[in-house]
Amino acid sequence: MESHTLRCADALVKILELKNVKFIFGHPGEQILPFYDAMRKSKIKHVLMRHEQGAAHAADGYSRASAGVGVCVATGGPGAMNLVMGVATAYKDSVPIIVITGDVPTDIKGRNEFQDIDICAVFRPITLETFDIKTPEDGILALKEAFETIKYHKKGPIHLNFPKNVLESYVDESIFDSMTEGKCRQKIDNDSINNVKKMLEDSKNPLILAGAGAVWSHASDILLKFASEQGIPVATTYHARGVISEENPLAIGMIGLRGTDAANYAGKHCDLLLGLGCRFSERTVIGIGNCKIVHVNLDEGVLEGDIKIQGDIKEFLEMIMDIKLNPNEKWLSSVQEHSSHFHVDTDYSEIPIIPQRAIKEILDASRDSVIVNDAGTHTTWVTLLICAKTPSSLLFSGGFGPMGYGIPGAIGAALANPDKSVVAVVGDGDFQMTSQELATINELDLPILICIINNSSLRIIKQWQEIYYGKCYQIELENPDFIKLADAYHINAMKVDSPGEVSSSVQIALSSKKPYLIEIVVDKREEIPLPEVLK
Length: 535
Fold this sequence. Notes:
The protein is an alpha/beta fold.
């Protein structure tokens, strides 16, 4: 029987096609060129980012917006190092992305030649796993394993590093005969389910705490059905906001450090907490009292509580759906007496506009859009003012919080949701970290609206300096003309500074269904409200 061989780079692209990858975000360079040559002949769309950090953030945004898997690629040496910020961001928030880097050929590896660096040593602490590929067979099997890990186990970035000569090597096509899935999801045992049912039946004041794992498992519909049938209130972590609509009476908002009164009241007074796909981080546990805990998560390493179940949230809910509880209406009404939304006074008429009024006008005018946050004071205002109605409608890097996430994250979100408008809310400092990605937005003609909140400073850093040191240093920004910059990238733009103008300008921008930038000049005297524990 005649055997056929295939170049490793071509085999990798073939696997990505089989896994239904539609976009790869990256930037070419010498050591990854065989992979780019293979992509040239593929139906997969390569999205040319202008910086590798943007490629990782865009893959991250694509994953979050689609609850799927984003892919980013870069060359060795500096290209790989530029990915690090975005990969660390995905790692901290357990976002599944596949990261492919090129590297110098194996015969010069470790000899300190041009662009030679121990790439895997850098990526190892910020990925679920990093594969230092030595042969094409190893690379193909590693890519297969990466997809299986992301599908069946904990979420996060997985890195594969390919020396250039390995990408150019050939492998027998028979290797695809072993491409059937080898791993499977951890099964939830019936004894654990029976114990959970007993605890629910004995509970008088149950509470569901949904985390991002409920989004990744596509459990929104079944979660709503279960909570509605059993009359159980649902609090969320930040990244699960919208997993059920925050307009629903059962949705009591975010719990913990920035939690709503209703969520933190429920967390302090519940007798049973059903933690679904969440982590009990230091910010979350602030809102939780002394109660029994059932914790379900694919990541065995984060499990806490009285019953620990390693498993998928949707599968878990399917297994307990047949339970029949008597809804404790007194418990639910006592929770609902507290506000499930944050109160922020936005009734200001000053010029320039007060930041929280500007954010409210952006959110009110962009209903049903995907909102992508960056880092800074505007993030707090969005957190306090938004009403998230659908899963993955509010994207934000919470665990790492890098400046510059917003614009490339919005690119990924827009490609994941071609039928939705995407609004990136960024600070003037944030914008200048990744402003080069305006070129990508223009090239792809993506209908992304960028709202720059311009206070000519790193305002949140200024607030911390004033609180802790009494003086400010190096936080004032001499900004460029953002409107001219947008024009240089052939993107429509306008500048506003007054109440009412923001709302109307957002409506104009979104109705154009084209790339758009709005610079919003705001009052510089902004101070974000601090949680009690930080005062």
